[in-house]
Design goal:
Blueprint lengths: L10 E13 L5 E15 L10 H21 L3
Length: about 80
């Protein structure tokens, strides 16, 4: 299901994007992404939990990964 029973297709997503920082012997900090987890997906309009089909879940994860990569590229981590 990609739409809430109230009819809305706008969702709020709780996601955890895990990052690990390491400082090398040269003193330079390096950040590594170690995981992405989707949490609860709720309807923006009414707050009910919304179930997404596999395709939409993959699309959502791709979007989150793209946003993460943009942050890394601009240094906003």
């Amino acid at each position: 299901m990609n739409r809430c029973i109230c009819g809305s297709s706008l969702v709020l997503v709780d996601a955890v994007l895990s990052q690990r920082s390491e400082v090398g012997p040269d003193g330079v900090e390096r950040k590594h992404w170690v995981g992405d987890d989707l949490g609860k997906i709720t309807c923006e309009a009414c707050g009910r939990e919304v179930m997404l089909d596999a395709f939409m879940t993959i699309q959502l994860m791709n979007h989150l990964i793209e946003q993460r990569e943009k942050q890394v590229a601009t240094g906003d981590s």
